[in-house]
Amino acid sequence: MISISEAIQLVKDNSSPLLKNTIKPIEKAGGYKLFNDVISPLNMPPFRQSAMDGYAVCLHDSLTYTLIGEIKAGDSIQPSLKKGEAVRIFTGAPVPDTANAVMMQEKVSVTGSKITLESQIPIHHNIRPVAEQVKKGALALSKNTKLTPAAIGYLASLGIQNVTVFKKPTIAIVTTGNELVEPGQTLTYGKIYESNSKMLQNALYNLKFYDVTIHKVEDDYNKTKAILKSVITENDLVIISGGISVGDYDFVGKALEELKVEALFYKVKQKPGKPLFFGKKDKTSIFALPGNPAAALTCFYAYVYIALQKMMDNEDLELPRIQAKSLTKFMKNGDRPQYLKAIYSNGTVKILEGQSSAMLQTFSVSNALVFVPEEINKIEIGDLVDVVLLPV
Question: CA 151 to CA 142: how far, in whole Å?
Fold first, then answer.
């Protein structure tokens, strides 16, 4: 059995960036990182644009101008203005080459075909120049840029439809247990509804990892071995739920050993989630999580999350940690470090009831985990505690 810090370091040291690429339509590229620099195919904006609803004018010495027309956003007209002439114009509309300033409508009075400005305005006022954002042929976004909603919008504004991005890992979730049945089936005596696969799948979806398959296997050694051999061969990451303990019908450990999976650690000094396995087979990472749901999800956030971030070559490998004042007391049993389900808000944290590794009810309303190290046995109200912030 190893310490939490040793286990985390082993995950970091034995996880590597995938460095594979794939092409994605931009509407499906959110959360990915660019594999290459993106060069702008056009000037943005591609024409001189009005930054305001107002009047485009050809400047002269007087404040009064003759109105000769109107230009809306999307119009392709190019009226020729002489000094002292103006056109009504709207935000985003093309500014005629012969206009050299735009006055916002709130500072203009209109009388028939004449307009009067409140004051003189400088040349180029309220006109967005050609290529103000980016020039054609210039760098639009650099390699490794994470594609946020704003980045997607920016690329769409440049007319880009597809981008080459770093490929995200293919992930298999394997659940084991004769006692498990699918929701919707009749729940007979001795059976429970299987929840871990859906829980872990949605934890992955929440982190924008969508290439996930789910595999279910009975407590049968040959079937367990066959499924594991298949998913390890076909995926970058395998997450196994259950079957890793030492019961007569826990076949995962034996199957992994026979498949020659390199065991990097098994069992971590922590609560919940002591029976945690991490190993490698060629370039595939394998985590065998405890079967108890809360323990499985805790281990996912503490360890699997790190491997995923490393695969994506991200800098921040662990979930953010802060210190907060505890609103509750807590007495720890035993000497194992513990992760406690909690609710964090505005610098304070409330440790919740129901810390059993089998209970998801409390976890379902948590947004944080309070980490209690080995040397601390109790927490008093007002104590500063370490808080791991969960993805929301």
Answer: 11
